[in-house]
Fold:
Amino acid sequence: MKQIGIGLLGFGTVGAGVVEGLRKNGALIGARLGLELRLSKIADIDLDRDRGVAVDRSLLTKDAEAAINDPAVDVVVELIGGTGVARRLIEKALALGKPVVTANKALLAEHGEEIFALAAQHNTDMYFEASVGGGIPIIRALREGLVANHIDSIYGILNGTCNYILTRMEQEHLAFGKVLKEAQKLGYAEADPGLDIDGHDTAHKAEILASLAYGFHVPLADVHVEGIRDLAEADIAYARDLGYRIKLLAVMKSLDDAIEVRVHPTLIPVNHMLASVGGVFNAIMVEGDIVGQTLYYGRGAGRQPTASAVISDLADAARNLAFHSPRRMPALVKNSHEKIREIGDIEARYYIRLSLLDKPGVLGQIASVLGQNHISIASVLQKEGRAGDYVPVVIVTHFAKERDFRTALKEMAAMHILSAKPVRFRIEDMLNQPPAGPGRAPDAEAVAS
Amino acid sequence: MKQIGIGLLGFGTVGAGVVEGLRKNGALIGARLGLELRLSKIADIDLDRDRGVAVDRSLLTKDAEAAINDPAVDVVVELIGGTGVARRLIEKALALGKPVVTANKALLAEHGEEIFALAAQHNTDMYFEASVGGGIPIIRALREGLVANHIDSIYGILNGTCNYILTRMEQEHLAFGKVLKEAQKLGYAEADPGLDIDGHDTAHKAEILASLAYGFHVPLADVHVEGIRDLAEADIAYARDLGYRIKLLAVMKSLDDAIEVRVHPTLIPVNHMLASVGGVFNAIMVEGDIVGQTLYYGRGAGRQPTASAVISDLADAARNLAFHSPRRMPALVKNSHEKIREIGDIEARYYIRLSLLDKPGVLGQIASVLGQNHISIASVLQKEGRAGDYVPVVIVTHFAKERDFRTALKEMAAMHILSAKPVRFRIEDMLNQPPAGPGRAPDAEAVAS
Structure:
């Protein structure tokens, strides 16, 4: 059986998971491929730490460049992370015409354009299934399974840490800070949690998905990002009363004149499949113009799920080496105006929570401000009880333009009838999605089931 | 741009969808592939019916064999259905070394072994993404995305007609017969609905998934099948009270000494993702030993979703032709004992509804019979009210062996304390699945999200 030599750069959590996976299921994987995936080199700066998996010392090296250069290495797996050393090493491998498998979403989101160009220049490939959605084969589904489709929209829960925090906040009625602290104590969130909770990790993944879907490198700077740091338990509760659950959602849409790529806490209907995604799980709903709505769900991170995705890429890379079919899969294929809609131009429904002075006529004043800015009200929720002289009022709007909405918020602030800054979230109804019911009637031809 | 010629056999609903899809998104698909998918021939016995899509008359022919033989045809798409003509034509194409794309689950389930062998013999390929789950790229996910995994289990909602009926029964509190009649009147169920509602269509799809997962052709006769025809609204209501929803589920499991492949109405926890799958949608949960649980969801049938899957296969076939890489994807790779557990040997939890004579001691008698057969009771539900002299009692058991359970049912029947045949369903808790909550705590390494 033909052997494909693997050079593994970075022997950390995921790296050890890959070694473990190849050891556990190597014979099965080999039989499925008709090729043997063989670990030829493992490079790491620390050769002594116990990773819970035994490897032949002769495979280990501190010299990553030597590993890349090793003629026994046919494909390079970069699991170092970050945008420094990792980038340099990937570029080195590509320059030698060696395909690279990576899980490095930050690098691809920031420097994907140059890296993909380099791979093309040297007639080789980048593989990055593990960069989005952990073990979920979403890259493959998007590029191959849905190849017939123009992608109308993608909605993704892409960060397990955030989803874990939001799920616990909702189910146990806890404050954000408390859940975050506990998660950190347990090692479930980083000491510096900003990358996750401020939405940047989700934005990296959204950038990759949007680029694949729309065929051009979406500049990370054009992705609007809001995190979950300021989310109050009260809003989770009000959302629930209104039939919604709050998720950190990556939203990508193809519109007539531009695409939208944004990441923010979002109210989604509680009976939507995405609302059922709890804990550290990830899910991505992709809507194509032919296939309609599809959804992909699984563990979005962790040693084993990520290793599963890395090995699936290794299998692909091995096949393309064995069949001499580099560049088999397209690089990005442009299929939309390369224009990203500015956040001020997006249209959405909004949830607003106001602490309103308890005086006659103030709600009318608020309604006037909204009306003057072309924002109409869909529903108002005001429960009994007050906080001092102020009463919490929740307003849900019909579709409105973000720019108008921001103007309205400014005008409200100037009216001195609010005790606190208004809180607002966008709502995504994803209306084509049938709820957990019959939804739209099946097509007559659905009969042949 | 290199052209790949397509010979389409069967210009029915899905065939027209494929033509429409290629017309609508042909340029985009071509750009993504670097190859042009070109319709060279369309064969059908009816050349005059309006399919809602215009085609050049010169492409149309009644002679399917001539279409297969046409040198302009590089790949054959079989959308005739059935196990007669379709089989003969597929075999003809394979014998010429031409790859075949099909959506024909009945044919693959019944004769897949011979057909796959013929493809191998002529160094060409069968593609069948559209045969299971409509537009959901489940075949690709299972064979490629999860290539690193031994498949522990698959749970599938695979028949849109059944799921539509069950969803309406539950949401509108309607009887099976009434929903079926309405569905038939509206054209959503066949005049002869047996293939769907008796579970055979689901069994065909389960056979295909199980064969791929476990690497050997599972004989259709070894798949235990029960349909939804006898499902009473009362059981849907009792199940709901117990926290379950009833779905027609295909269950595939890898066990120590055998695999299980079965299709039957099943109680699943109401907070499980699969329970949220409503209407004509399909979903498949696949658990791998490395990746953990993953789920795939979308429209399981219909002109457009099926066309999306067919075109994704055409893209694959075209790439393999262009890169001269036939047999790139493995045929079945054996990875388990080729043994299917008999239904009597399976273990499950059971839901039983009994109409019990309203006399002291009868529930004790039932409990004794269960106990004597090694079946222990997890919970009992008896609501007030009776039907004549009989009271409905619902019992949920712990895990028990089907054979013991059947013996117990026989012994109960002989006791003359029941007014009707006991009703029983299996329960699948799919316990590894976190409910819509934090579920199992994330791994420490999940931090890197």
About this structure: DSSP finds 13 helices and 17 strands in chain A. The mean pLDDT of chain A is 92. The two ends of chain A are 41 Å apart (CA to CA). Chain A touches chain B through 102 residues (CB under 8 Å).
